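Figure-free illustration: sequence to structure, shown twice.
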Amino acid sequence: MSVRVKLPPILQEPSGGVEAPEVTGRTVGECLDSLEAQFPGIKDHLFDRQGKLLRIFGIYLDADGLRPIELDTTVREGDELVILNFLMGG
């Protein structure tokens, strides 16, 4: 299934300036694997060494409210994943 992934500016450098690449997959995780195949190393910016999404990012499906989604969430043809970069401070 073809899904668009909207990237925050912080991930556009590792994507070569591409703001919203098209990827394929049946789940969010598969879509992120497809993103990694297009832009090797981009997942290193998203996940820690244990494979957990870094706390500075949230992934949303079709800008679905304020509820982050999980990597096993199913996607459909034409869906849009939005990766947001949260500002952290102290």
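We now fold a second protein in the same way, so the two outputs can be compared directly.
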Amino acid sequence: MSLMNRHGLFVVEIINPEYINMIRTIREKLAIFLWIVVAAFIATIIFDWGMGGFKGKQDVRSQGFIAKINGEDIKYTELKNIEENYIKNSDQKDMSGVKAAELRQKAWTDFVKMIVIRQELARQNIVVSKEQVYDEILSNPIPELKSSEQFMTDGVFDQLKYENFIKNPNPQYEQFYIAIQSAYEQRMPGTLLESRVGNSMYMSEFELLNLYRESNLKVMVKWLKAETNSFMPEDSLITDKEIEEYFKTNPYEFPKQLEQRNFDYVMFSTAPTAKDSALVLDDVEYAMTQLKNGIPFEEVARNHSEDASAQNGGDLGFFGKGKMVPEFEEAAFKAPVGEIVGPVKSKFGYHIIKVTDQKKEKKELVEVKASHILIKFKTYQSTYDDAQYAAVNFRDELSMLDSEDKDAYKKTAEKLGHKILEAPFTGKTDRTNELGIVPGLGDFLFGSAEGTVSPIMVTNAGFVILKIKEIKPEREKNLDEAKKSIIYKLRQKKGLEIAFNKIDGLKAAVTDTLSMNSIAAENKLKTGTSGKFAVDGYIDNVGVDRMMYEIALGLEKGQISKPFKGAQGAYIIYLIEKDVFDQAKYDAEKEAFKSKHETNLQRQMIQEWLDGLIKKAEIIDYRPLYR
């Protein structure tokens, strides 16, 4: 038996039979729990796998390595286990090639995080004692255990029952207890690391009070606006000297142009073919034959229909006109009750329809109740297989040519009759306009050298093989590239100054809300009344304007503000209403409010820290060798 007591000693005691069914249930759930752990954030994503492996100069694939991260060789089996469990535990019913590839890419991303964090744990020498693990198991049961009925009394989790289960383990379920212990051992170092990173986050009393006021106190105002856009000068009035000066003094507004890459690609399409269309009709005919042979409509629908109504025997319930696609509606409203009609072709596929009831008003048919069997237009497995075979054949032919031949990709495409297409330059992303989502695209493009040919990759349109064509390295933006945006910024700046001067010249005439209306009409300005809004609340015809909120918060009811510059222009506002700060309410809510916002800030800090670790990590990706 491997469950420890708080002193690190293993204990064995026979458990009551009433726990056996509960243990079976929890054991089934535990595998899912352990792989949910993999995907969770810091506190739940750290695993302590032994690395081992060969350190020689043999081929990395023969050694079984999938990556080298910060100089550490990572075994392929570690990633493979996570990939398989992500797919196994996915709630996706349609596990097409792209969805499976997306899950594998997610597994890789999370796996890299785990390795980098594990390395950071080692660097900071964070370890957890056996006593700490045992105490944590007792005091913080995992959700799967805490929600189990066997640990509840009158529907509420019973800590004593749980402790008895932990302190008196059944040797028959040794592996189960080992798994629980392992889960905590894997989770706890991450929790300590999270605390180390996030505990430096602290909100002062002043910051807390301001945040509370901004989140809870709302205001309502009448506003008079001179809109920036109405006063912006023409482009020609912005001088080259002003443009150059702005470019020099505001470098933070012109971040570097990040590295970009483009690529050639050959697509092996999985779009439906004439053969697929014929197979769809075969499926329709098969369903019709079953109905003619007397098999109940509901049974045929459950077995063959390809939409959500299949589980209900195809039942769509009652529907009126305009609720279904025209072809379906026309057939359903014409069919007598009890008759099977079709197949009816729509944009979704072929429908076999059975009307089961009708509703009439003044002898006019207004609703029908119908069931249907839908056979969708789709690509059949044989077409997927043909496309995949063509992609594999392309890779095989390419591998036979000299690896130093820069034209090998082109020669292979020409020999096999495939067209080479070109994608424009892109940043590190798995999505392009040409291909849609390609899981792993960004990692391949930015982890490989110019001229590298990809493994077979999966898209919604088919299989694709890429070749990196050109690399544009990261660089500073030049003045010509920034000129257009600078001109617009300078026009805005000058327009706001003119708008402010306009409002400032009218401030003496603003005495109440009625005067705002007449001033706006006479000077072609805008005015309006807000609803009640907080600091980040939306204001009709204004948008979000934190400055307006701050100014309003400092006014008393009926008071008029000085002119100020806001998000869309220059304003004068009249305070109609303002919530009153309730000190007693603040005192009652303060700790919960503080805890919530400090937690959010800690999470943000931890995420930024983790992003920094990943960005600095030196990662060599060997996945293409396994495809």
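Summary for the second example: The first strand starts at residue 65 and ends at 69.
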